[in-house]
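Q: I'm writing up a methods section and want to include an example of the input and output format. Could you take the sequence below and give the corresponding predicted structure tokens, formatted cleanly so I can copy it straight into the document?
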Amino acid sequence: YFRNTDSIQRVTDNEMITPNDFDQFCVTAPTDSRLPNGGGYQICGLSAIQPAAAARVPVNVVKSTSNFGEDIRRNHFFGFGVNARLPKGIRVGGGFDTGRSTKNQCFAVDSKGIADFGMTQYTAGALFGSGYNLGQFGYGPATTINGQSICDITTPSKALAQLKANGSVPLPYDFMFSGIYQDLPGQVIEARWASPMASNGNTLGRALASGTSIPVPLVAPNALFEERIRRVDLRLTKYINLTSKMRLQANLDVYNAFNNNAVQVLNTAYGANWLQPLKVLDPRLFQISGMLTF
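A: Here is the clean output for your methods example:
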């Protein structure tokens, strides 16, 4: 078991902008059977900068997140492993790992929610792992999806659990059969929508300071997941003694033996091709190899 926490980071604050320079508004998610409850719910707490504030020359200063509020990130993980040698040369091994991760970043730097301006834009990145990301920090305390706040993110155990097993069994006539099984979490499902300002349900009541759309998440972080990735690799080995000092090991490998086509990467941009697989497990592959020992 291990636990870690990381609660003090840095952010870039544009000192010419304050939360009062943004207008809060809502948009309505499209009606779509692929969305939770068929869509049609509201995403609120979005921030649009006022035109006068957008024209100011930025003065960016790097500051600690403690100047704006609590930045709490905690991870709890535990793992279990086994490696056993059984009678008749049978060997089994494997392990199980899971945990729970929380990130509470419900503070406002420049805007109180996902914004259309500067560093607070809702963009792709690595700040929050595979979930939604912002160029600055978090979603802001104001943004909600269907009434649910999304600045306090919990990654549940099912999204982190991994099971791996391996084993080998000696067979007659110097054959050996072995295999590996992996059961891994499926990808988090996201929906990044470039919401047009003319869309139905927009409550801003004015044009943006720049642009005609604002990036909006339609699915709460860690709410939906692809199916788990399960894979089996097999090997049949034949040992051949060529001389008293030379031995040949001939292998027949079958990778992804059951030809699982689990999705590894999805299209997360909301539209007609949303959820279209971009990468799946490699198809079943046969391989013959050998090793000569002398």
